[in-house]
Amino acid sequence: MKRDKYEKELGKLQVQLCRAQSWIKEKGERVVVVVEGRDGAGKGGTIRAITERVSPRVFRVAALPAPSDREKTQVYMQRYLQHFPAAGEVVIFDRSWYNRAGVEHVMGFCTPKQHRRFLEVCPQIEKFMVDGGVTLIKLWLEVNNEEQQRRFEARIDDPVRQWKLSPMDLPSRERWYDYSKARDQMLQATDTSYAPWYLLRSDDKRVARLNAIRHLLEQIPYKKLPYQKVKLPKRSTKHAYDDDKSIERRRFVEDYYGGGNGKGNGKGNGKAEHHANGAEPGEASARVPLEANGRSRKQANGRAHAGR
Fold first, then answer.
1. How far is the CA of 35 from the CAs of 53, 145, 163, 231, 256, in angstroms?
2. Looking at domain 3-219, does it have CATH number 3.40.50.300?
3. For the chain, N or C: smaller number of CB within 10 Å?
4. What gap in Å lies between CA 161 and CA 245, rounded to an integer?
5. Is this structure's pTM higher than 0.85?
6. Taking Cα atoms as reference points, which of 87, 91, 84, 93 lies closest to residue 25?
7. Bigger pLDDT: 283 vs 105
8. Is the pLDDT of residue 308 over 50?
9. Ranges of each domain in the chain
């Protein structure tokens, strides 16, 4: 999908998400969204598209790290339950208790007995959640073999994506069919009428994000609430004074990109920079500025240190 079309459709859906947010707050609804899938399937990008325009106080993301030694001794679901929503909240789990059905089982982080026990008990726990008034939405993002390989290779080569490569990503390539089998077992045991799984093809990330948001909205019976018109009050002139002058000697962030050529707007900047670099007033600053010809600050400072 082309970017222009994607952004246009995304904008429309995000308006509806904001309306759903208002309804959820007004009605005190509790929503849990589980986002699972293969490594490299686009879970993080899908969650960002959902949460980009809504309040983080209503839409919370729970992305739990590996369990601590203490958490390993708890009841398995315990560390997830503490993140569940209160009234008027949506919690999106970026990976969830279904780790036990997937990575923990495939990589040997749990025993076969623990795996079997999870598949037996999980539907009962989810029924307890749904019967208690929680709206539970479960999404599984499925990416094909070729696209997963392409995305992993992009992560290896791109410095701004390398952080996405986890210790589990590379083994997931080797164990493709082990993960497929684990997925099939999970779906067989936990795809229920009260907490169904919905599979989402994510070979095209943009299309997948739009489909995910549309599906999410379809699962929440929200209505557009009346919006109270807001009138912006005029600024009061009571106690008025020159509040720009009062801060002109303070330190300002360098206006490098706004035409200020890297200079701060405050009269206190020069004095502050001298002190920050250990120089007395009147001495030259040791700081090397970012060069206007495109050299990086790191390169400039490196040359400065080499000359000392």
1. 19, 20, 20, 40, 41
2. yes
3. C
4. 44
5. no
6. 87
7. 105
8. no
9. 3-219, 242-308
